[in-house]
Amino acid sequence: QAKVAGKSCYRFYSRAMDQAVERRVRMEQDLRGAWDRGELSLAYQPIYRLGDGQLVGAEALLRWHHPEQGSIAPSVFIDVAEQSGLIETIGPEVLRVACNDAVRWHTQFNRGKELFVSVNVSPRQLRSGELPDQVATVLRDTGLPASQLHIELTETAVIGDEVHASALLARLRSTGVKVWLDDFGTGFSGLSHLRRVPVDGVKIDRSFVSDVLRDPDDLALTTAIIAMAHSLGITVIAEGVEKEGQYAILRERGCDLAQGYWIGHPVNVQEFCGLLA
Ligand code: C2E
Ligand code: MG
Ligand code: MG
Ligand code: MG
């Protein structure tokens, strides 16, 4: 396409592409040692039960504080980690820290006994096939009860190769951990997928939640997801709850759990302990 547009144009595109590639390569290099240099940490976003408003768990969200560039969003660097394969070393560290923190919540705070921690896992981590063993090892090493660890996978991780993915999910669930489908509703698979892919929970994507008060279609879809999931024995979690009205309508429609800026922002582990105290 660029070639057809002429030589100068080609050079322009090529230089812009070089710069993008260069930025990516540099980010990959920086990310390589980031964990060991202590630049990566976990933030925890509280998850509440809608029925009684109880704090029941937290989602672990990776944070990168770059020495020169400051904080870099996961939406940018997770992709680099995924493409480069670095996620295969970072992922297990995330799992370990999250489980260790959760065990501390259980031992330090009486009412923390029931708290779960939910960890995001990328498609590549699932496909490597090592995840079930990694999970079993980290549960053994940390002593966290398996039911208190939730693994979040996006639809893209299970789409395409459903037979393989279902087998991996079954192995994962046989360790006792719960598997949640993240960003649910954004992929192409939709509700029919839930019959074939064994999961314990679905997280309704923020894009639906943000419009439940304004857009009757989004409310209808959200209500349908809740009904369908419940009929299959699947828990429903709403993400991105930013308004009291959204919280209220989700509770009214029977949604089980929720997280979002209106209820609680992601915070560092000390601040999260403050919420428990
Ligand atoms: P996600 O798993 O869907 O996480 C939810 C994202 O929504 C988080 O963004 C969270 O900070 C943000 N959020 C929560 N409540 C609200 C709200 O009320 N309004 C809005 N607008 N946003 C809200 P974050 O932390 O930037 O993470 C982005 C994505 O990066 C995550 O999406 C997840 O896919 C990925 N990610 C984060 N940590 C990890 C990790 O340790 N491993 C892997 N593989 N992916 C991760
Ligand atoms: Mg998530
Ligand atoms: Mg999500
Ligand atoms: Mg809409």
Give a written overview of the molecule.
The protein contains 12 helices and 9 strands. It has helices at 7-32, 74-84, 87-108, 123-127, 131-142, 155-158, 162-174, 193-196, 206-209, 216-231, 244-252, 269-276, and strands at residues 40-49, 55-66, 70-72, 116-120, 149-154, 178-184, 201-204, 235-238, 257-258. The protein is an alpha/beta fold. It is 48% helix and 19% strand. Helix 11 links the parallel strand 8 and strand 9. The termini are far apart. Strands 1-2-4-5-6-7-8-9 form an 8-stranded mixed β-barrel, surrounded by 4 helices.
Quick structural summary:
Keywords: Membrane, Transmembrane, Transmembrane helix. The protein is of the alpha/beta class and 277 residues long.
Bound molecules: ligand C2E, magnesium ion
Q: Order of strands across the biggest sheet?
A: 1-2-4-5-6-7-8-9
Helix content: 40-55%
- Strand count: 9
| Shape, per Cα inertia axes | globular
User: In this structure, how is the largest beta sheet organized?
Assistant: 8 strands, mixed, barrel
Mean pLDDT: 91
Q: Could you tell me the strand content as a percent range?
A: 15-25%
First-to-last CA distance: 60 Å
Q: Give the ordered list of helices and strands.
A: HEEEHHEHHEHHEHEHHEHEH
Rounded Rg: 20 Å
What's the layout of helices and strands?
Blueprint: H1 7-32, E1 40-49, E2 55-66, E3 70-72, H2 74-84, H3 87-108, E4 116-120, H4 123-127, H5 131-142, E5 149-154, H6 155-158, H7 162-174, E6 178-184, H8 193-196, E7 201-204, H9 206-209, H10 216-231, E8 235-238, H11 244-252, E9 257-258, H12 269-276
Parallel strand pairs: 2-4, 4-5, 5-6, 6-7, 7-8, 8-9
Antiparallel strand pairs: 1-2, 1-9, 2-3
Helix pairs in contact: 1-2, 3-5, 5-7
